[in-house]
Amino acid sequence: MSAPATFGPLAADGGTPVRERFLPVALPSVGEAEKQAVLETLESGWVTTGPKAIELGRRIAEASGAAQGLAVNSCTGALHLALAAWGIGPGDEVITSTWTFASTANVVIHCGAKVVLVDVDPRTKNLDPEKVARAITPRTKAIIAVDFAGQRAERRGGAHGRRVSSSASTFE
After folding, report:
1. Residue 170: its pLDDT value, please?
2. Which of 15, 46, 53, 126 has its CB 3.0 to 4.6 Å from that of 9, i.e. a possible disulfide?
3. What is 74-166's CATH topology?
C-alpha cells in the first residue's frame, strides 16, 4: 500500500478542482405546471401577498387542521411567528438540534429565550429523543425538531407538555 497523496491548494485558492462538474446536493423538481403557476403569479401583479399566498395559507390550515394558515417567505419567518405566538420570551428555554441551520437558534435568541442544543442520533441525524428528555427543565417551553434529509424527526414534546415545532414548519 502506498502513502496517501499529498494535497495541494484548494480549488478556491487556485488549486485543481476535485470534480470537473458541480455536484448538486438537491436538484429542484420544476415541471411545466410549476413554471405556469409562477408565470400566472407574475402576470397577476401580485408577487407577495396576493391570491396565491392567501390560497397557500388556506391550504396550510386545511392540511394541518388549524383554523387559519399563513404563507411566509422562509422557515426562519415561520419559526419566529410560532415562537412569538406561543409567548416564548426571556427566561424560557427552547430545545433544538445541533445539526441545523443557524436561523433555527437565531429565532430563539431573537425572542429573548435561551437555546438549548441537544445532540442528534448518529444514524438519523435527527434529535435524539432520549437526550431531549434529559435536557427538559421547568423553563423548557418548546422543542424545534429539525427534519434531516427528508426523514421526519420524532416529536415527543407533547408527551412532556411542551410545544413542538419542526423545521418543515408543521406544528403540533
Report:
1. 37
2. 15
3. Aspartate Aminotransferase; domain 2 (3.40.640)
